[in-house]
């Protein structure tokens, strides 16, 4: 009996994307302000020092006081942007059917975009309205295969949670590498919904409340944010002058251990340091004795959770966000919400933010209070064909690894699920496709697990694929072509 290998190659596209990736390389915000982190140059700060690799100040299509978000590819190509009400294509023009979404430019986080699981061209655009508007938490769909790649909004304002909701929204990847979790807070209650290839469920995956959260008037303002390891959540409670923290499990989609910290000023927006050890929170409140509106506070996550107060870091910074370069970029507004073109850069956020540079009039246009909201990470795993091979024959298995961002792995481990030794494979910056030859001795369905590891030994999301191994019989003669008799899949 001859045995024949079924020739073929599995391509598994794996985008290991987090906030350090180039999906966050375009920032549109404020009144036509913007930053492009794909175009870098040196700039002189107010203290006369030169700061290298500063993003280019650009003109954007949005005119928004607060809510804004942009979407780009893993290699930094702009796709679209929005203020929650209107979607703009990559050229800055209104996208087809792109008006009338139920977000709002005056919502703290008017919306966020996330890849639709199972699709390579569609995105969910999830929106929240301005406080006390009864439009609810909704989603629309952008399909970038329309209009020659410029996209179109193909479905609009589908309700996830009806009625009055608060001005915050966050999306975090599920550790299965396929799906996402949507997190939102209204009043004293957090909600988690599952986003899968079947859609966005209108039934919450989790509802969890804490009566220590202030529900007084105007507590609807304030951002929600996720750490880049997807395990820590913060929420700002504006009028309650609170920072709410919680633990999140990206595998189960469950929040737990909600704790409340009180701030000296109203909390508006924030971000984690790249190493997730520090939490930075900004306030848009006026500061007595200065001509500045806003103050930036900092505290380690562990100390904050243990009850320590946040420490004032700098007056003037209304809001700050982590960029793909590992720095924090903050905007300044003056007393009375007189917006400015001024930019702050926190150079060392992993060390507590002691080094801050100020760049007056850096932006081309004035900024408001809001900076872009991004999903905590994009992960796409798209198998192109089912791995199939015959027993006792080598088969090539392959993965494609995105190396464009700061979370790129340094090595891969391959476990073929048949008891053979685990293989370690080094990842280099000059190579994106990684292959392994393997032969299975027995028929069966095997799970191949590829685990990426960072240089510090931290593992990233495992990649899994199934290998269908069968006994293959070849029958042939000189008059007819060969017929491969093996599996139901190949017989059909």
Automatic annotation (TrEMBL):
Leader peptide range in chain numbering: none
Gene3D superfamilies on file: Immunoglobulins, YVTN repeat-like/Quinoprotein amine dehydrogenase
CDD domains: PKD
InterPro entries assigned: Ig-like_fold, PKD_dom, PKD_dom_sf, WD40/YVTN_repeat-like_dom_sf
Residue ranges of every copy of the PKD domain listed in the record: 409-450
Domain of life, source organism: Bacteria
Record-given protein name: PKD domain-containing protein
Species for this entry: Dysgonomonas macrotermitis
């Amino acid at each position: 009996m001859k045995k024949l290998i079924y020739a073929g190659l599995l391509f598994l596209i794996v985008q290991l994307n987090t906030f350090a990736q180039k999906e966050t390389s375009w920032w549109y915000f404020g009144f036509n302000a913007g930053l492009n982190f794909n175009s870098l140059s040196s700039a002189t700060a107010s203290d006369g020092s030169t700061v290298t690799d500063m993003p280019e100040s650009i003109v954007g299509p949005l005119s928004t006081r607060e809510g804004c978000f942009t979407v780009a590819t893993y290699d930094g190509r702009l796709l679209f942007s929005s203020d929650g009400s209107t979607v703009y294509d990559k050229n800055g023009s209104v996208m087809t059917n792109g008006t009338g979404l139920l977000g709002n430019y005056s919502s703290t986080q008017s919306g966020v975009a996330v890849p639709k699981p199972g699709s390579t061209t569609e995105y969910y655009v999830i929106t929240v309205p301005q406080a006390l508007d009864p439009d609810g938490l909704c989603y629309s769909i952008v399909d970038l295969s329309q209009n020659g790649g410029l996209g179109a909004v193909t479905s609009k304002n589908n309700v996830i949670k009806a009625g009055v909701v608060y001005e915050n929204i966050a999306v975090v990847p599920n550790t299965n590498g396929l799906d996402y979790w949507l997190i939102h807070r209204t009043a004293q209650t957090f909600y988690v919904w599952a986003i899968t290839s079947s859609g966005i469920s209108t039934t919450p995956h989790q509802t969890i409340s804490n009566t220590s959260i202030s529900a007084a008037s105007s507590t609807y303002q304030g951002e929600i944010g996720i750490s880049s390891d997807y395990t820590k959540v913060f929420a700002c409670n504006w009028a309650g002058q609170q920072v709410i923290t919680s633990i999140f499990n990206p595998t189960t989609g469950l929040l737990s251990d909600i704790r409340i910290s009180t701030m000296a000023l109203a909390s508006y927006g924030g971000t984690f340091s790249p190493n997730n050890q520090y939490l930075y929170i900004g306030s848009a409140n006026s500061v007595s004795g200065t001509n500045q509106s806003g103050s930036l506070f900092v505290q380690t996550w562990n100390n904050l959770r243990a009850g320590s107060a946040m420490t004032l870091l700098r007056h003037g910074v209304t809001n700050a966000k982590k960029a793909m370069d590992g720095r924090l970029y903050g905007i300044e507004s003056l007393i009375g919400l007189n917006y400015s073109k001024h930019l702050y850069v926190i150079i060392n956020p992993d060390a507590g933010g002691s080094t801050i540079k100020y760049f007056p009039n850096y932006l081309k246009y004035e900024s408001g209070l809001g900076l872009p909201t991004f999903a905590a990470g994009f992960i796409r795993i798209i198998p192109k064909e089912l791995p199939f091979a015959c027993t006792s024959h080598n088969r090539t298995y392959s993965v494609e690894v995105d190396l464009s961002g700061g979370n790129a792995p340094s090595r891969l481990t391959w476990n073929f699920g048949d008891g053979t030794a685990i293989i370690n494979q080094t990842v280099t910056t000059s190579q994106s496709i990684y292959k392994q030859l393997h032969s299975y001795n027995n028929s069966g369905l095997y799970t191949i697990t590829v685990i990426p590891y960072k240089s510090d030994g931290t593992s990233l999301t495992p990649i899994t694929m199934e290998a269908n191994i069968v006994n293959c019989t070849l029958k042939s003669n000189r008059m007819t072509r060969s017929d491969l008799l093996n599996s139901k899949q190949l017989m059909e």
